[in-house]
Amino acid sequence: MIPRYLVDFDVAGLNQLEADVLIIGSGIAGLYTAIKAAENRKVLLITKKSLMESNTRYAQGGIAAVTSDEDSPAYHMEDTLIAGAGLCEPEAVRALVHEGPDGIQELIRLGTAFDRVGGELALTREGAHSHRRILHANGDATGYEVVRALSQQVAAHPGIEVWEECMVIDLLTEHGECIGALVQMPDGERSYITANATILCSGGSGQLYRYTTNPEIATGDGIAMAYRAGAIVRDMEFIQFHPTALCHPGAPRFLISEAVRGEGAVLRNIHGERFMDKYDSRQELAPRDIVARAIIHEMERTQSTFVYLDITHEPPERVKQRFPTIYQTCLSYGLDMTTGWLPIAPAAHYMMGGIQTNLYGESSIGRLYACGETSSTGVHGANRLASNSLSEAIVFANRITERLPSLPPLVGHTLISYSDNRAEYQASTVVERRHKLQETMVHYAGVRRHRDGLQAALEELHGQVPVFQTVIASREEIEFANLLTCALLVVDGALLREESRGAHYREDFPETDDCVWRKHVQQRREQGITEESIHDI
Known about the structure:
Blueprint: E1 9-10, E2 15-24, H1 28-37, E3 43-46, E4 63-64, H2 73-83, H3 90-109, E5 116-117, E6 120-121, E7 123-124, E8 134-135, H4 142-156, E9 160-163, E10 167-174, E11 177-184, E12 190-200, H5 221-229, E13 233-234, E14 239-246, H6 258-262, E15 266-268, H7 288-301, E16 307-310, H8 316-322, H9 324-332, E17 342-351, E18 354-356, E19 368-370, E20 375-376, H10 388-403, E21 417-418, H11 430-444, H12 451-462, H13 475-496, H14 514-517, E22 519-524, E23 528-533
Parallel strand pairs: 2-3, 2-12, 3-9, 12-19, 18-20
Antiparallel strand pairs: 1-21, 4-8, 5-6, 7-8, 10-11, 11-12, 13-18, 13-22, 14-17, 15-16, 16-17, 22-23
């Protein structure tokens, strides 16, 4: 159904370049990996937009790591495991909580300016965290500050070459190893890159859904490429919906950070009533999946398209200082969060699943690594703990670069070609196709799911599969093919998992079934769907 390659090609006729390390993506995972890898080898970093454009840039809340004497890695690990609803890999979580603090110090050394109070790192608390351990920068612009600091380091590094506005189409493999990638240049010409190691840092696939906090670029490219190449992807059914995205006419689904609730904001329905105590004893600080479902239930019960987030009881100056970006953005749409309630609704936010890796970022394909949201390290389980994503990226980027020196050099390989007799692209426009896919996913594979809806989604998605047999040329067409690949993986996994766990909620199977389903769902292009037990310790 899904072909090995998206386009026909013959590398003998393409411009060929070589790199020690090829990194695809320029979020925190790609930038940090590039800096660490370039300490002793030449790095080529490719990004499909500018160096500064990534999901990381829009991360508001912060980065979770133990830096206070009142906290401990054991507490951080316990919180992560609880949020992950029984599906975390304990060894991966242990690596995160013990190595994260050193990663913070490295980010500071590389120029990241985290907020401080009295000379000490300022810490906040977010949902499902037992302690204040969230570092932030410029109040609510943590991601932007991290990307600013790291991108400056990358741009100035003599060992890192950066290609912007370039679209990686597919990974090239031979004898079970990744030997490089096929790249479309800004002018439409294609190049063939060979690399000793290829590292996917290309983010998630938030654009599967019409309502998302993710930027336009989040189209699941790395996951789809790895799947086509034969890599195992895992836990694709687990999509985290952020409970609080701005829901206002004329405004995008702008993320209202969980830290706003961490600093005391409460949720109210359209009648002004607080409601979270009806759903969970932790109220507004319950895990994201619980809060998102509670909001959806209240919206349906009150026949509204939104609920309210209320922080008007906090001093206005404190709110403006702590959340300057959120305050100014809402103000630009005529909403003053210090005097009025913000209309919010859930929106797609983060993928817990992705390319399956081991504790050193290695995929099931030799020489192919994955880091950040595009990977499935086992840290997040069925529901990511808030602000663990940035710390996961730096911890596993560091672990990947530790392994690179042991890789033997890439030796001679054959010149690959591929032809699939593709037809001209003649159906509806790619914009229409993308919109239809997003509507399908919102309706049938969103916050709540049911077998009937998932089957309907699968039928609609299969109706778009013929696109794989057409000539795909533009970046938008490549992105749509990647989104369709990821959508099929998400729906297949959601259909198979007949239980509710974390971010995956089945109305027809509302209970968690540890006896049958406390395991991962794996998908591989040639082998189909399989299952894998949790590696308990």
